């Protein structure tokens, strides 16, 4: 049963409705550990599915290129006000279609083609849009990359400072997709100030933790903060670029007309709803629980001899190097998926293996925390992961996969999922 219900979809297009239903069941029955995913609330789903999708509104509130903005302007202004208040931002643009276009807008606001950008290298945990070679950002700009230290698995701030002094980037990115530790925003800010660079913090993964007070905030340190809205922040797929007042005009101009056309108003409304939810004491408790769950899961994995990059976690994310377990990331991830544990294979720093067949696994606890799992469930979860990984290394996991998947379905049946429930 969907909440909101989807009777028209079921009547008009049973093929798509059937796939939506199957996906809802899949999300219900799996321990979802993909670090960038979550479950949104029914209120967010309703806003996303609303008639706001019918409306064009290129421009910004009060200065649009289309008539009929009596309701859209207040929606967007509410989203902006809520973002500013939640994060303590001087300026917020809520129109970027997703995280990657949001980051492109940051380039467009501050750089010319060929200018130098400094970002965390992709295989060390950075994002494609921080200047990786296959990305437009790596092709159109002179990208210089920092990494993590081999001995600590943590970002090498000495390397960041040395590279910034030598290369004089116009833009420095901090943040990434596989960073299990707290980002030192004040240290990045000091380097950016010294070298005259704009500092952009990409908080796509940790926005919900920052909103809930479970990770230090980049505001007051970074000039620009970009984020997706659909990861730990638990909103619809979308993004925001926030900044100091000084850069407000440049950011807005870069998003529209620089990069995009009409904003997705149904998404803007859903972002506003998610930001309202994220401002509640319940969400702060949720953010703390995400971190507590990740710590407990990391401790249970360490106890079972897993090699965690940086030795643990400060946030929602755990990066495992499977080398000592005698199995690569991809076969392990595939076996775990069949066993009801969904996560992704991932490169680890200094990975000797190829990006499409790397050594590691990446896990995050945002979605399982939304399902109401707590620290007490983490030792069992680590035990299931271990059982499947060991069986995969031995080459005969089929039986273990089936057994674990059944146990997981049993556990999750008692933990409701927002947006869907199995028929009684
Ligand atoms: C997810 C992510 C993005 C990109 O978001 P999309 O919505 O997938 O384009 C950008 N930066 C970081 C650090 C991310 O984790």
UniProtKB/TrEMBL annotation:
The modification N6-(pyridoxal phosphate)lysine is found at residue 231. GO terms for biological process: glycine biosynthetic process from serine; methylation; tetrahydrofolate interconversion. Keywords: Amino-acid biosynthesis, Cytoplasm, Methyltransferase, One-carbon metabolism, Pyridoxal phosphate, Transferase. It is found in: Cytoplasm. The gene is glyA. Residues 9-385 form the Serine hydroxymethyltransferase-like domain. Catalyzes the reversible interconversion of serine and glycine with tetrahydrofolate (THF) serving as the one-carbon carrier. This reaction serves as the major source of one-carbon groups required for the biosynthesis of purines, thymidylate, methionine, and other important biomolecules. Also exhibits THF-independent aldolase activity toward beta-hydroxyamino acids, producing glycine and aldehydes, via a retro-aldol mechanism. Thus, is able to catalyze the cleavage of L-allo-threonine. This is Serine hydroxymethyltransferase. Its main location: cytoplasm. It catalyses: (6R)-5,10-methylene-5,6,7,8-tetrahydrofolate + glycine + H2O = (6S)-5,6,7,8-tetrahydrofolate + L-serine. Its EC number is 2.1.2.1. Pfam families: SHMT. The keyword Endoplasmic reticulum does not apply. Homodimer. Belongs to the SHMT family. The record marks 230 as: Plays an important role in substrate specificity. It comes from Actinomadura macrotermitis. Its cofactor is pyridoxal 5'-phosphate.
